[in-house]
Amino acid sequence: MSVRTALRVKRPGRLAAEATALVIAVAVAFPLYWMVLSAFKPAGEIQSTEPRPWTLAPSLDSFRRVFEQQDFGRYFLNSLLVAGTVVILSALVAFLAATAVTRFRFKFRTTLLIMFLVAQMVPVEALTIPLFFLMRDFGQLNTLGSLILPHLAFSLPFAIWMLRGFVRAVPEALEEAAYIDGASRTRFLWQILFPLVFPGLVATSVFSFITTWNDFLFAKSFIISDTSQSTLPMALLVFFKPDENDWGGIMAASTVMTIPVLVFFVLVQRRLVSGLGGAVKD
Amino acid sequence: MTTPTTALKAPAPGASGAGAGTPAARPPRRGRPVSPRGHSGWTPWLYLLPALVLLAGLLVYPIYQLGLISFLEYTQAQVSGGEPTTFKGFGNYATLFNDSQFWQVLLATVLFAAACVVSTLFVGCALAVLLTRIRALPRLVLMMAALGAWATPAITGSTVWVFLFDPDFGPVNKVLGLGDFSWTYGRYSAFALVLLEVLWCSFPFVMVTVYAGIRAIPTEVLEAASLDGASQWRIWRTIMAPMLKPILIVVTIQSIIWDFKVFTQIYVMTNGGGIAGQNLVLNVYAYQKAFASSQYSLGSAIGVVMLVILLAVTLVYLRLVRRQGEEL
What we know:
Chain A is an all-alpha fold. Chain A is built from 13 helices and no strands.
């Protein structure tokens, strides 16, 4: 607000800026609008060479095709299960690790921090090959574990790095007071520090949720023969056909896949913006 | 519906503790035992144990394996156990470096990533500045639209953009009057289409982060500059950009890393790398080599090349951060 007052410009200038912002917002939102619109269009209108930005006869046919597709519900649950497990485990593991590197001084601490930073740069996609053999050797191919474990590991470096700022923000006086009052270290960790850092955990979980939910490469590479273990991206690809794509089905499946992420984003966006500020400034 | 704006105005919980960009605000903590209870000893390692075990097993070990496979003869015959694995030394790398397609893909990857990074940063920063100059309602609208683009999974974003630009049924060609021009047919138009999608889904991160950073700049400074009649561009160049330098470095490096590794968009939008592999980037190239033609060792060698390039970027980043005297 104060920035705005400081930069108060002449009215026409501001109106022009606001008009620009609105035009850009419409352009940015348009693909999503078109996705939902096409999902509701009846088949004839989607295949029309005169696409109209509205529909007068919304239909649920495309959604019906998506949900009647074999095992779609199963794919959805699998995606939810994988993403949910990764989010919860990653938050807990990263919280412990972030506490260790911010509240303690020990040998190799800085080295570890640099390693966590470097780990974020590793092209995860390149590791698909060795991970494929690793999963095969442990009999994990075609199981949800083959998706959960790598995503859990890859979400950690960023989560730890991001949580550091939140853990550091909790005053040390509080920790001392807790110990003076006779709290054990474990009690301080879970009953005092954990609730205080929770907003940070939420911001962090956005990233692990999105990368896991959106995953396409591992889902495609590790779930090769047992389709009952497939996740949503595979359900989407079914509608791509060599001769003619079923755009209605693709758009409906895309809508179904996008909505949980959008809901998640809207729920946590307040924490996300503040969380990002905290992590980046740190 | 006013939540996003109020959230932005409220001091960030993480930021307040971290000193909100002013290093002086950070309490000195060196030379003082952090843990009040004598020796911390093995406690931090206990806390770190789960993270370290996971990372060792699923990150460090696979990296080692990746390097190892890149030095072996490893194709379908070895995978199925039909033939013993043999050590090839730098043979795979020699094959790769003598293949003109590899250099072509490498060049395309670097140029494509550079174009993505530059456009993402430019659009993100410009819109962040724009956000500071408008009232709450239009800001909320733009913010929500950007969050929507950000939240969209790469695979659905890719399918929607392909559909928007579809030669037969897409609205874009209709509006632009391009007839049945196929965007994915030509090499450059296909890359341009992917670039637009990548820009669409990655500028919000830059915009939100830089906007959060601008809000942390003391208002007096901006006010003074504005009163002195500085233009918006000058305010950005001489005040905002220098003060936002730490944030800009983070955002730039993140963008480089993300855009260098673009996989899903290329794979879905150009159907696995385009006609005759014209739209391949290193990531997709490695995948196709390994999983489509079972040349696992060549795929691994490409992976190692990517790893080395990104490691170099990381080292530059670490030097930049260190030079600013930031404490890890």
